Amino acid sequence: EQMRLHMATDAGKDIAKKVGLVYQFNIAPKKIGVDEEIFVVDLKKGEVTKGPYEGKPDATFSFTDSDFLSIATGKMNPQIAFIRGAIKIKGSISAAQKFTPDIFPKPSKL
């Protein structure tokens, strides 16, 4: 819900315009690939939806909810998380490299 509100702000709209990609997040409670909740952050339309993307997202990220929270709050760098195996990525590597914590609301808003 916080992401939806963030996408409606001027900062969210600027990020959507700058990035212009579709990311799918598969978030698991404990283990990647098990009982995942799926969310789509569509930075082409500036929308956030629950459920798989209809079509092919530019990049799909799979992680645990604790690693997702660390990335969303800026406590963990996405590139470092990938190197450590905390994130699994499918799709375009160049699109994945444009994924930064800037797309999330600031921690005070979470």
TrEMBL record:
This is Sterol carrier protein 2. Residues 9-100 form the SCP2 domain. One of its GO terms (cellular component) is cytosol. Pfam families: SCP2. It comes from the Eukaryota. SUPFAM superfamilies: SCP-like.
